Amino acid sequence: MKARVHVTLKNGVLDPQGKAIEHALSSLGFDGVNDVRQGKVIEFSLSESDPAKARAEVEAMCEKLLANTVIENYDIELNA
Amino acid sequence: MKARVHVTLKNGVLDPQGKAIEHALSSLGFDGVNDVRQGKVIEFSLSESDPAKARAEVEAMCEKLLANTVIENYDIELNA
Amino acid sequence: MSSAVANERPVTPEVVREHGLNDEEYDLILDIMGREPNLLELGIFSVMWSEHCSYKSSKKWLKYLPTTGPQVIKGPGENAGVIDIGEGLAAIFKMESHNHPSYIEPYQGAATGVGGILRDVFTMGARPVANLNALRFGSPDHPKTRHLVAGVVAGIGGYGNCVGVPTVGGEVNFDPSYNGNILVNAMTVGIAPADRIFYSAAAGVGKPVVYVGSKTGRDGIHGATMASAEFDEDSEEKRPTVQVGDPFTEKLLIEACLELMATDAIVAIQDMGAAGLTSSSFEMASKGGSGVELELDKVPCREDGMTPYEMMLSESQERMLIVLQPGKEDLARGIFQKWDLDFAIIGHLTDTGRMVLKMNGEVVGDLPIDPLAEASPEYDRPWTATEPQDEIDPASFTPSVKPAEALKRLMATPDLCSKRWIWEQYDHMVMADTVARPGGDAAVVRIHGSNRGLAMASDCTPRYCKADPERGGAQVVAESWRNLTAVGAKPLAVTDNMNFGNPERPEIMGQFVGCVAGMKAACEALDYPVVSGNVSLYNETNGQAILPTPVIGGVGLIDDLDHIAGAALPGSGQDLVLIGETAGHLGASIYLRDIEGRSDGAPPPVDLELERRHGDFVRAKIRDGSITACHDLSDGGLAVGLAEMALAGDCGADITGAEQEPGNPPLAAWLFGEDQARYLVTTAQADALLAAAVEAGVPARVIGQTGGDRLILAEGEAISLAELRAGHEGWLPGYMDR
Amino acid sequence: MKAAVIVFPGSNCDRDVQVALRQSMGSEPLMVWHKDSDFDKVDLIVLPGGFSYGDYLRCGAMAANSPVMKEVVARAQKGVAVLGICNGFQMLTETGLVPGVLMRNADLRFVCRDVTIKVETSQSLFTAKYEQGEAIRIPVAHHDGNYYADDDTLSALEDRGQIAFRYCDQEGKLSEAANPNGSQRNIAGVYNETKTVLGLMPHPERLADPKLGGTDGRALFDGLVEALS
Ligand SMILES: Nc1ncnc2c1ncn2[C@@H]1O[C@H](COP(=O)(O)OP(=O)(O)O)[C@@H](O)[C@H]1O
Ligand SMILES: [Mg+2]
Q1: How far is B12 from chain C (nearest CA, A)?
Q2: Complex prediction ipTM
Q3: Which of D13, D120, D168, D203 is flagged as catalytic?
Q4: Engineering a disulfide at C464: which of B29, C472, D131, D153 sits with its beta carbon 3.0 to 4.6 angstroms away?
Q5: Do C246 and B70 make contact, defined as CB atoms within 8 angstroms?
């Protein structure tokens, strides 16, 4: 099973990286770009093949390590 | 229009972050996790509403700024 | 040969050319092998004989450089040079270029450059204690420059900061000749017990060859040959693989290697740098006069299905090769496992004089070691000397602006502005021994646990080397020696990094030959031998060569950290004393280039006897406490030197009137001339200092006093420190944030 | 007083803080390898600066999940003093021993230089040898020192006196220019509720020796030794 986890900053948390990208894009002449946010995507394969169990496991990984839930949200995609 | 760009390391390029995450997950007792790769996800809104033009614009952003195509691949999703 | 290589590409003339080997070289290979090489063997020849590994164009000339002295423990030929710094300790240091990779991928290129030079130093048993970096970028107006500066600086910081070695100094120039070929030269200085230096020569039949560190991937295959090929427009399109550095693993590798080195398990050790496993195993066996047999299926690989060719040529980072004393395998394995690093016994030494490579028990490559190493090509390339430029008569032109305005502008030029924006991105204090931080003539790093220190600096004035390679080469060495002297250190030895264009062009080869001649003379005259170095050729794009840039990294010793000098004016009420003669040499000066728009003229002559006399005097007077601040005068001459001291100390000065002394050159030449062998110092005991100078035969005169918040230059013309500071500190951040 | 410095793979200020502690304690602190969870009883645990586990994923996140940190948290909860410097501060926020998070510096660049910080209170184990309101000069060296917590948390921290240090100018005034990383309310260091745990971004161990250009950091270690002996 393949897992893909998106870790993104919660709304309302200032994102310095996103802001810098927005600034850089506009100075490169890309206009009309707004609300840039940068997050992480973590991909891996998982030996667990039961979808429910796999999801629970990945959720535990997110809570324990992959995301800092004080400022970040996470979102899990699983693919057999 | 909303854009979401995934920037990931090319196959075969060393991913020290992914390696470290894999190691950390396994020492937390999550077994069976393999091939961990970490990438970036960049999300933003775009004033361009024509899908073809928007894609071309985001592609140019990737080539110029968002990805380092020497070692990274990018993947673009657009949503009206 | 076995089936493992059966499905590899056959060696055709085209394949030979792709490997950067010409017909003569291939004939030599046939001779040595006594048969046609397979692809793996060809690959090995190609990296071993690349310019980068073989120094084929430069070897002949490098031999002229002086490399010995009572302080030298090990000169060029090992991973890094080793000098004696007393009390049972040795300093180990080297500089290396990562120019091409940094142009293609500035962050990773620069980062892996730092990683590579660190390994060269700790592989010899030293704990790295400082990093320096000499950078050259294209014109600030070039569309790529800003991105390259940002990436290179972030990469150097990203690696050095994580590894925990302070980056304490360096230099940065901008010139259009580097538009398509930036220079990233990184230097590491380490300290080791003088009786526990580790070398790469490996002897002893049957001794295990061990691989440690990171796994091998398909990184930078052909990196070493890339580093030796001229750039053209498509190299960006080809997008050759650039390695990604892992400073965290490097930090673990440093600690693990130093831990193993504290035991007596190691016979020989060698980092896997350019050309990875090939050059490391080859060099170990060749230096030890032995043979080596490797079982490539034991090599820890990051990817499935890697071929012997890929394993032997991979440039994956953070790897080392060690030959162990038999019976020490478990001890060593334990240490590397503790640090979570790969450890694998991949072969053993033999007495066959051959390198035998096996994959799953079958021989896939078999080459003779000595013949390959000895036959490595050496060229006596044709060269033509650079035409000398005319001396510029300082009275021959009328300055276009008044001195204060010229100074204000010069202090805010890309070359002379403050590089704070850069060094603040480097952790320059980690290890808690940085006594003099970046910003002065030389950084000073305390020898841990003592009251002694090492001073270090990197220097090069490429515009002088272009105008007159021999003078330029001598000046580079002299300035390096002066920078160490100016903090109170005794200069001991240097490492060099020779960055030049295409050596197949006689005028470029002439630059190289000239610079070497100048360096040789200066190193000899100053007892300042070359103990390590690196050559980077083919730095050209579309036939446009870089300025000749032979960078010198100097290391000196401070016996007593209570007696050092900094460049900052120490407060008001002191006398400013100018040491050395001022004839007003403006040829090839920054003033002419940046204020008058002229880059002609001969660079200032370098009188090595005067350098030595003046420097020895200044050092002695720093040590006896009579000099309270000191700065050597170089780019921009007296006015720029004074302004730098004033800004560093946040204290003004008044030198008006000094310009009228009989025999002085015209005003602009007096203030901005770049005469060599000069220092500007402050003292509270001017009479005694001047008397001592007379006795030592050193020209010295009081030119003014410290105090106030302005510089009063000449003819009463003044400029406020605030105004100078705004431009000096503002240019680089302003440029980068634009 | 007995002190322990926890050494993680990638720590690089462990020796620096060892030297500073030795100087103030007159004896050697214990250097504890991260795999060694049952170390001797100590009065102070220091989490040093550096790049534990490469700072990959998030600074301090992997160290916070390592076995030795379970022990550190348990001891902290029993009242043992814990000092987290730089990367150590990041570990403390990741374990939740102190609130908030440390994000990427606002200008995205690593920053290494001296800053001045204001001592918010001298009523703690860590700051007894400083004057309240005093501005001290201490170096920073970090890429992720941008302190963030939501407004309610920040106000609660302020109400309970949990702010230890704030970035200020030389006169002690808070300003944006004095803030090297964009931290909210110029916060440079915070305590836990009992003020027995301190996380701070600047490195007091780097200016605790006149040879290195200043000694403002020394009083922190001297104060700890006095309070815990
Ligand atoms: N890339 C860099 N990294 C670190 N320090 C630098 C860098 N470039 C310049 N510096 C520092 O800035 C100061 C001035 O440099 P430079 O003008 O080259 O000195 P000098 O003229 O005395 O050789 C030195 O202390 C030098 O170490
Ligand atoms: Mg100098």
Answers
A1: 6
A2: 0.94
A3: D203
A4: C472
A5: no
